[in-house]
Structures are given as structure tokens and as C-alpha cells.
Automatic annotation (TrEMBL):
The lineage of its organism: Bacteria, Pseudomonadati, Pseudomonadota, Betaproteobacteria, Neisseriales. It holds the Pfam family OMPdecase. Catalyzes the decarboxylation of orotidine 5'-monophosphate (OMP) to uridine 5'-monophosphate (UMP). It comes from Iodobacter fluviatilis. One of its GO terms (cellular component) is cytosol. This is Orotidine 5'-phosphate decarboxylase.
Length: 234
């Protein structure tokens, strides 16, 4: 089952039990779910399979960044878990991305393959220390490369969404973390935007963690975001 909501809830919980307890209060038509490095390192592929078996579209966010063969094989392993989306770092370069794309295209059913441009926690100062240009410039450069390598989209901040839509086209998926409903704490995020602004800017999917999972009523927090985006069927 799929959902008309653009929200991907980041299940940044410390245990499979907490993640499953939250998932069991949801339905797959309300949101997609993301399993990231902390939860996967603690709970492994079994949890991913359990979420897929419950009917959720699962984004396995392990941000692979390694030599081409290693990343391609890791993404194939992710595909075998039945995930909906998997990601790599665009800074791994053309050969890494093209080898991975080819490995997934050979499968009968493949997940979407997207690339992280510049982490939404990073600001101009962080990039300057690495001798990199300001975020918008670096994001554009990596998004153009990702598009040219035939991937399905990029992770970027919503601040870069409208520029990237105009450059890479409507079919190139923009996945935007750093989403904060009005009055929410930014935490460690730097380049943030509200859900409504992000969608208006051209974001296709909104990755949202703490504003939902750490709220007093996580399910209501998700539903409120969906309502604000005029998602039907709540
Ligand atoms: O790939 C990601 O999902 C990701 C990329 C990025 O640039 N920034 C970013 O925050 N994320 C992830 O998105 C989630 C954001 O969580 P919150 O900041 O709690 O909403 C975390 O799970 C991050 O790992």
C-alpha cells in the first residue's frame, strides 16, 4: 500500500521495540518510514523486513559511501529486503553511482536510488572549512552529477528544492530532511523549512524525525502535519 502523504517519518529510535510500537500505531496510508544508521546498527535487517511486511514503504537510509563495487553490492542487499528507497553519498562520485544504478537495474524489482548532496546539518562555515563552496553551489553541482548518472533523485534541503526542480526536471525526486513545523526546535539541523514551505518549494518527500517522534503525541503530530498539507483520508 502507498500513501499520498509526502512525509517520511525518521524512526530514529534506540530499539526495534520502540520503532515497532510506533509503527503499530500507524497505517501505511499515513506516511512512509525511514530506518537510519542508529536503528539499523542496533536492530539490523530483521526490523526492516518487519516494517516492509506491515505494508510500509521503507527508506533504508544508510548513506553508502565506499568503492563502487562495495556500494553496488550493499544496495543490492538492501533491495533484497524489499525497501522502497535506498541512498548513497553523491560525493562518492560518478563511477560509484553508475555502478550502483546498473546493479539495481538488473533486478526484477528495484528500490529508488537517491544520492545525498550536502547534509542539512551543514552550513556555509562547515563547507568552507572543507574548501567547498556555499551549500547552494555544492548542492547544485552534486545534484547535476547525480541526475547525469541516471539516479532517481537527491537528498537536499528544501532551500535548494526550487532551483533543483528547474534544473533536473519534475521527475527527479527531491527528498528533504531539515523539516521543522513552525515553533519546533531546529536541533542540529542548519538549513530548515516548514512542511508547507518545503512542498511549495518543490520537495517531493519530507523526512521528519524528532518533531514527530519526540512530541508528546507522535501520531497526532504526524496527522497534524498531514492535515496542514491537506492530505486526504486522515
Ligand atoms: O538522508 C537523510 O535522511 C538525511 C540527510 C540529511 O542531509 N539530513 C538529515 O537530517 N537526514 C536524516 O533525516 C532525519 C532528520 O531527523 P530530524 O532532524 O529529527 O527531523 C535524520 O534521520 C537524518 O539522518
Amino acid at each position: 500500500m502507498s500513501t499520498s502523504s509526502p512525509v517520511i517519518v525518521a524512526l530514529d529510535y534506540t530499539s526495534a521495540a520502540e520503532a515497532l510500537a510506533f509503527a503499530d500505531r500507524l497505517r501505511p496510508d499515513l506516511c512512509r518510514l525511514k530506518v537510519g544508521k542508529e536503528l539499523f546498527t542496533r536492530s539490523g535487517p530483521v526490523l526492516v523486513e518487519q516494517l516492509v511486511a506491515r505494508g510500509f514503504d521503507v527508506f533504508l537510509d544508510l548513506k553508502f559511501h565506499d568503492i563502487p563495487n562495495t556500494v553496488a553490492q550493499a544496495c543490492k542487499a538492501a533491495a533484497e529486503l524489499g525497501v522502497w528507497m535506498v541512498n548513497v553519498h553523491a560525493s562518492g562520485g560518478r563511477r560509484m553511482m553508475e555502478t550502483t544504478r546498473d546493479a539495481l537495474e538488473a533486478l526484477p524489482q528495484r528500490p529508488l536510488l537517491i544520492a545525498v548532496t550536502v547534509l542539512t546539518s551543514m552550513n556555509a562555515e562547515d563547507l568552507s572549512e572543507l574548501d567547498l563552496p556555499e551549500p547552494a553551489v555544492q548542492v547544485e553541482k552534486l545534484a547535476r552529477l547525480t541526475h547525469d548518472c541516471g539516479l532517481d533523485g537527491v537528498v537536499c534541503s528544501a532551500h535548494e528544492a526550487s532551483l533543483l526542480k528547474s534544473i533536473c526536471g519534475a521527475d527527479f525526486n527531491l527528498i528533504t530532511p531539515g523539516i521543522r513545523p513552525a515553533h519546533s526546535a531546529a536541533n542540529d539541523q542548519s538549513r530548515v523549512m516548514t512542511p508547507i514551505e518545503a512542498v511549495a518549494a518543490g520537495a517531493d518527500y519530507l523526512v521528519i524525525g524528532r518533531p514527530i517522534t519526540q512530541s508528546a503525541d507522535p501520531v497526532e503530530a504526524l496527522l497534524a502535519i498531514n492535515r496542514s498539507l491537506l492530505i486526504k483520508g486522515q
